[in-house]
UniProtKB/TrEMBL annotation:
Enzyme Commission designation: 2.6.1.1
Lineage top rank: taxon: Eukaryota
Reactions this protein catalyses: L-aspartate + 2-oxoglutarate = oxaloacetate + L-glutamate
SUPFAM superfamilies: PLP-dependent transferases
Protein name per UniProt: Aspartate aminotransferase
InterPro entries registered for this protein in UniProt: Aminotransferase_I/II_large, Asp_trans, NHTrfase_class1_PyrdxlP-BS, PyrdxlP-dep_Trfase, PyrdxlP-dep_Trfase_major, PyrdxlP-dep_Trfase_small
Organism: Pterulicium gracile
Length: 405
C-alpha cells in the first residue's frame, strides 16, 4: 500500500477558499467582504504610520542583534502588553501575579492557554470548554487539538440579530461548577454582537456564583470603539472581581501586524506564589513547542507601547481605522433604510461593533450576492466592514437590497 493511503483529503479552509474565489474573479465591481483584515478606503492593506516609524528606528539601531529571546519572550514587550490590556493600575499587576508570555499572535495565545488548561486545570468531570454559538471557527480546532471538547453556549439570537442574553445566562447557570467559558473580550467574531456593560456585570455575577473560569480572547482591542481602555472594560471588570481567568492578546488587527505574529497570553492566578508556579509550567510548555518566540514584531510593539509619543500616535492610527469602519456602518445603514427602503430592520448594522457584522441574510441570499453581484462573503451572512469603502458601499447596499426583497 502507498504510505499515505489512509489520509483523507481535508476540506479547504472556507475563508481562504473565499479569498481565492475573489482573486480569480475578473468582474470590475467585485467586492471582498470575507477578509478579516483592515483595508483602507482604496481597498489596500494599511501599514500603520506609527509602525513604519518603529521599523525605521529598529533598522537604524546597531545595538540590536538576532540572538534568541528568553522562552517567555521580549520582557519589555510582555510587560507593556500586560499593562495595555489589564490596565496599569490593575490589582493583578500591582500584586505581581499576572503571568505574561509572548505568543505566536492571538492564535498562539489561544493554543498556549488551551494547552496549559488541558494539562493543569482542575476540570469538573470531562475536559470541556464552552464556546459561544457561533464563534471564530478556529476555536473548535484549537481546543480539540489539545484534548478539550468544545460545547456550545447560547449567544446569538437570529430573530433579533442580537444577543440572546437569557440563553447565555441559562447556559452559564446550567453548566457544571468550575466550567471554562471562552468569552470574546470585545467585537465578537463573527456576529459583531457584544453584551452591554450591565449585561457583563450580570454575567460576571454568575461566574462568581458558579466558580466558572473566564478564558478571554481579545483579538480586537481598540477596534471596537476606537478606545483601547473601553474595549478592555469587560475583562478588567471580571479580573477586578476576582474571577479566575486568562486573556489572549493579539496585535494583528490593532497594529496591522497580521503576518508578524505578535501576541501574548496573560494568566491571572490569585496569588504571586501561584503565579510563579504557573509561569514555570507555561515556560516548560513553550520551550517544547517553539523554544523562543520571534523578535521582530515584538520589538515594533515594544517600541510603540514604551514611548509616549509613539503610543499617542498609535492611538490616533487606531481611531483612523475604527472611525472608517464606523462610518461605513452608518453609510450602509443610511442607504438601506433611507434611500433604498429595503424591507426589514437594519438597526443591527449600526448596533453591532468591530470589524464584522452579521447581516441576518441566509445562506442562499449570501450565495446569490456572490453569484449575481460578485460580492464575496461567508454563507452565514457575515460581512467584513473593512471591505466596504466609499467606492463600493452603494453597490453592496443595492445588492443586499435585491436579495432582501
Ligand atoms: N481570536 C479571534 C476571535 C479572531 O477573530 C482572531 C483572528 O481572526 C484571532 C483570535 C487570532 O488572530 P491572530 O492569530 O492573527 O492574532
Amino acid at each position: 500500500a502507498e504510505t499515505w493511503e489512509q489520509v483523507p483529503l481535508a476540506p479547504e479552509d472556507s475563508i481562504f477558499k473565499l479569498t481565492a474565489g475573489y482573486k480569480a474573479d475578473t468582474h470590475p465591481n467585485k467586492v471582498n467582504l470575507g477578509v478579516g483584515a483592515y483595508r483602507d478606503n482604496d481597498n489596500k492593506p494599511w501599514v500603520l504610520p506609527v509602525v513604519r516609524k518603529a521599523q525605521r528606528i529598529i533598522a537604524d539601531d546597531t545595538s540590536l542583534d538576532h540572538e534568541y529571546l528568553p522562552i517567555t519572550g521580549l520582557a519589555s514587550f510582555t510587560s507593556a502588553a500586560a499593562k495595555l490590556i489589564l490596565g496599569a493600575d490593575s490589582d493583578s499587576l500591582k500584586e505581581g501575579r499576572a503571568v505574561s508570555i509572548q505568543t505566536i499572535s492571538g492564535t498562539g495565545a489561544n493554543h498556549s492557554g488551551a494547552l496549559f488548561l488541558s494539562r493543569f486545570y482542575n476540570f469538573n468531570g470531562s475536559k470541556q470548554i464552552y464556546l459561544s454559538n457561533p464563534t471564530w471557527a478556529n476555536h473548535h480546532a484549537i481546543f480539540r487539538n489539545v484534548g478539550i471538547e468544545p460545547v456550545d453556549y447560547s449567544y446569538y439570537d437570529p430573530k433579533t440579530v442580537g444577543l440572546d442574553f437569557d440563553g447565555f445566562i441559562g447556559s452559564l447557570k446550567s453548566a457544571p461548577e468550575r466550567s471554562v467559558f471562552l468569552l470574546h473580550a470585545c467585537a465578537h467574531n463573527p456576529t459583531g454582537v457584544d453584551p452591554t456593560q450591565d449585561q457583563w456585570k450580570a454575567i460576571a455575577d454568575i461566574f462568581l456564583e458558579r466558580g466558572h473560569y473566564a478564558f478571554f480572547d481579545c483579538a480586537y482591542q481598540g477596534f471596537a470603539s476606537g478606545d483601547l481602555d473601553r474595549d478592555a472594560w469587560a475583562l478588567r471588570y471580571f479580573f477586578g472581581k476576582g474571577i479566575p481567568g486568562l486573556v489572549c492578546q493579539s496585535f494583528a488587527k490593532n497594529a496591522g501586524l497580521y503576518g508578524e505574529r505578535v501576541g501574548a497570553l496573560h494568566v491571572i492566578p490569585p496569588s504571586k506564589e501561584a503565579a510563579d508556579r504557573v509561569k514555570s509550567q507555561i515556560s516548560v510548555l513553550q520551550r517544547s513547542e517553539i523554544s523562543n518566540p520571534p523578535t521582530y514584531g515584538a520589538r515594533i510593539v515594544s517600541l510603540i507601547l514604551n514611548d509616549e509619543a509613539l503610543f499617542a500616535e498609535w492611538k490616533r492610527d487606531i481611531v483612523t481605522m475604527a472611525e472608517r469602519i464606523i462610518s461605513m456602518r452608518k453609510e450602509l445603514f443610511r442607504l438601506l433604510t433611507e434611500e433604498l427602503k429595503t424591507p426589514g430592520s437594519w438597526n443591527h448594522i449600526t448596533d453591532q461593533i468591530g470589524m464584522f457584522s452579521f447581516t441576518g441574510i441566509n445562506p442562499s441570499q449570501s450565495k446569490a450576492m456572490t453569484e449575481n453581484a460578485h460580492i464575496y462573503l461567508t454563507t452565514n451572512g457575515r460581512i467584513s466592514m473593512a471591505g466596504l469603502n466609499t467606492h463600493n458601499v452603494r453597490y453592496v447596499a443595492e445588492s443586499l437590497d435585491k436579495v432582501a426583497r
